[in-house]
Every structure is written in C-alpha cells, then in structure tokens.
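Exercise 7.
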Amino acid sequence: MPKLTRLYTRTGDDGTTGLVGGSRIAKSAPRIDVYGTVDELSSAIGVARAALHPSLEAHARAGRLDAWLAWTQDALFNLGSDLATPVERRTAEAPAVGPGDVAALERAIDEAQQDLTPLTYFVHPGGCLAGAHLHLARTVCRRAERLAVALTERDEVLPPEALRYLNRLSDALFVWARWINEGLQIPEHRWNPNSEPPAP
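Solution. The predicted structure, written as tokens, is:
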C-alpha cells in the first residue's frame, strides 16, 4: 500500500479521476458511479456499526453482527478496488470478491434466520438505530447492484462475482436488520395497507 504524503493532488480538478494503473476517466462515468456507490454502501455500514457500539458488551448478537459487518466492509473495499481496475490490468493476486465471499454471506443469512420466525408480513425500515441503518444500507446495496447491471448492459466487463455478491449482500443486510432488531427487542413497524392518519 503506497504511503500517502498529502490528501489532495489537484489531478481531479478537471473532472477526471484515476483508475488503478494510471489511466484517467471522467468522474461522471458509469464505472465511477458503481464503485462510488459501493463506497457509499460501506459508509452506511460503518454508521450501522457505530450504532451497534453501545450494545457490544451487553449483547453477544451485537458483537457477532459487528464481526460480520467488519468483514463486509473489507470485502466491499476489495470489490471497489477491483471495479477501479481496468480489465486488462487485473491480476489473480489483486483483492477481489470471489465465490467464497458469496458462500460466506449465504452462511451468515442461514445463521441469522435460525433465530428468526418466518416473515409473513411486510415491515418498514426501522427498529433499533443499528437495524434502521442496516435497512438503509440495504437500499444503497440495491442501487449499487442496479448500477452494476447497467454497466454490464454497456458491454463493460465486471469482476466475475460482483453481481452475485451485491445481490446476496442486500439479502444479508435485510436479515441482519431483522436479527439485531429481534435481539434488542425493538421490532420494525409492520406495513398496514389500511393505515389511517393520527386523529386530530
């Protein structure tokens, strides 16, 4: 990892940014939109982890979830790095998400669902603060997935497991939100299609 001696370089003042390997691309390019949204997703997960912090010592489930989220942030950084690398510069040694990461998310989902009753109704995002932030992270993940799909429709090559990982991660974030809400006993608000406004 190169040592950064200063944060600003002024090279992006013209509206371009550098890809891995040195080539430059417009900051408005669809590829930048994808890995910028992956970065936003990691930031949303970081906020969820911060919300978990007060519960780490008192609730084992919070500690377990924080471990999963820490790993997820590392995986997302690997994904972002891979997305920022032109296909001709990718190497087998470079960080990337792979089939093992997708399988790990499936294991995490199965692990959490063992503690949950089957969902037979729709819920609104909410619950405890960490759960609400995980619901928000899920929507950012879905946006990253949509942008990645749009990139493939432009015939751009994505990392092989990128779409599968993002698709599975959005499911995991939903289940993790339910799991921590249930563990901290702060349920989400159920959708009521016949809801009435509060009385005057």
